[in-house]
Structures are given as structure tokens and as C-alpha cells.
């Protein structure tokens, strides 16, 4: 029982770390620092969701972090369409009626 409690504390602490990264990102004035912090937040949330067993949220958070990092290094606007199509496809795969 103690191991389960400690694992849950670790998993939830990852969520709080992601919250802190998100708040610090939004308080930032520099655009590149904002994107880096939001990417870190997305990757930490991805680990958090993975440990919780939420596969759809894991992939969505990971893609969001990748999108933020891609926008940092690329100004190609048509790349956004690729991410939008991937999100729609991901939603289709995870849809439950």
C-alpha cells in the first residue's frame, strides 16, 4: 500500500511541475523562452499522463511539445496543417461512441 501511495505522489508531483512550468512560461516576455518552457511543460505532462495510463493524453501532450519545438526552429506555416491533421486523426482514433 505504501508503494502505491508513493508512486501516486510522484505521478501527481509531475503534474505540479508541469503546472509550474506553464505558469512560468506564461509570465515570460521572450517568445523563444516561452516556446521552450511550453515544450518542457508538454513533455512533463506527457510523462505524467503515461504514468497514469492515459495513452491519448500522452500522445497529444507529446505532439504538442513537438509542435512547440518545431515552431521555435521553423517558420514554415504549412507545417501547422500537418499537426492539425495529426490531431484530427488522433481524435478519430480515440473517439468512443
List keywords for this structure.
97 residues, mainly alpha
Structure description:
The protein is mostly helical and 97 residues long. Helix content is 85%, strand content 0%. The protein has helices at residues 2-26, 31-52, 55-73, 79-94. Helix 1 (2-26) runs antiparallel to helix 2, helix 2 packs antiparallel against helix 3 and helix 3 (55-73) runs antiparallel to helix 4 (79-94). The termini are far apart. The model has no long low-confidence stretch (mean pLDDT 86).
Q: Structural class of the helices, strands and pairings?
A: mainly alpha
Main sheet properties: none
- Put simply, the count of helices is 4
Estimated helix fraction: over 70%
Poorly predicted sequence stretches spanning 5 or more consecutive residues = none
Total number of beta strands: 0
Q: What is the C-alpha radius of gyration, as a whole number of Å? A: 15 Å
Elements, N to C (H/E): HHHH
Shape: flat
Give the DSSP E fraction (strand runs of 2 or more residues): under 5%
Question: Gap between N and C termini, in Å?
Answer: 36 Å
Summarize model confidence as the mean pLDDT: 86
In terms of topology, how is this protein built?
Elements: H1 2-26, H2 31-52, H3 55-73, H4 79-94
Helix pairs in contact: 1-2, 2-3, 3-4
Short account of what is shown:
This protein has 97 residues and is mainly alpha-helical. 85% of the residues lie in helices and 0% in strands.
Amino acid at each position: 500500500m505504501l508503494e502505491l501511495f508513493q508512486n501516486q505522489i510522484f505521478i501527481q508531483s509531475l503534474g505540479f511541475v508541469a503546472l509550474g512550468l506553464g505558469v512560468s512560461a506564461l509570465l515570460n516576455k521572450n517568445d523563444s523562452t516561452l516556446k521552450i518552457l511550453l515544450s518542457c511543460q508538454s513533455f512533463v505532462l506527457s510523462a505524467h499522463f503515461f504514468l497514469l495510463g492515459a495513452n491519448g493524453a500522452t500522445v497529444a501532450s507529446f505532439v504538442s511539445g513537438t509542435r512547440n519545438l518545431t515552431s521555435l526552429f521553423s517558420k514554415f506555416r504549412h507545417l501547422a496543417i500537418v499537426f492539425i491533421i495529426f490531431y484530427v486523426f488522433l481524435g478519430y482514433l480515440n473517439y468512443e461512441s
